[in-house]
Each structure stands twice: as C-alpha cells, then as structure tokens.
Fold this protein.
Amino acid sequence: MARLATRAPEVVPLSTAERRLAAWLRFFAAIFAAGAVIFFVRPEGTVADLDRIGLLLGLAPLPPTGGPVAANFWLTLAVANMATIAACAGLAAADVRRRRPLVYPLVVSKITSSGTGLLLFAGGVHAFPYLVVPLVDLPIAVVLVAGLRAARPREP
C-alpha cells in the first residue's frame, strides 16, 4: 500500500532572546503569584513594612485609610491585578512566539502603575510605598519592552 509523504512542520528552536524573554516571564509569573498571595494575606503588614523603610529614608508614612471597606475594595483589585499579571506572564513564557500578545497587558499595567505611583508620590504625601511602585514596576516594563524588541518575530 502506498503511503502519502507528509512533512512535519520544521521546528525552529527558540533564539537566545526568546529564551531570555521566557525566563523573565517565568520569573515575573512566580514573583507576582507570590506577591498576590502575600499581599492578600497581609496587606496592612506589607504597607507597614514599606512605611518603616520609608521612615528610615526620611519619607513620610502613608496616611491612615478611612476604614477597612475602602482598603478592602482596593485590595481585591490589587490582588486581581497581580494574579492576572502572573497568569499572563506564565502563559506567555510557555510559548513566547505564539503568546507574545499576552506580554503587552503586562507592560501596560506596569507603566500605568508606575505613572500612578509617581503622581501619588509627587502630588501629596511623599510616602515610600508610593515610590516603591515606580521603582519596581518601571524596570519591569523596561525589561519586558527590551525583551519583546530583542525577540521580534522572524520574517518568513
């Protein structure tokens, strides 16, 4: 019996830039998944720790919140954002070629949070927790944009 010749698609190994981007994405997925859990379990403790560091640097602490309802509202959104970032990063790392678009929401999130943190820090209380956001998130956005640029899809 004659057998039809079939060609399996050629598998092109990941480039160094693609492997590096995938490694960064796995790292960020793990960090943000852990951060979501830690922040959910001890939000007040996390902010208090940041305030203590800020006081050592001569910065003001965050003003007290109006009550747990407002704080819990923002807590749910912050934890959801961290979980979404972790999921996008993890899924993109699994296949950086086909799931590349999942990295774009991470960049948007990190740039948005950096801008918001800078505005809150500059526009009122110079509290370290506000400054930590751009100090952490802006480098993440820069690393991801650089990784995306370096791992550009190859032209056929």
Summary: Residues 44 and 71 are 9 Å apart (CA to CA).
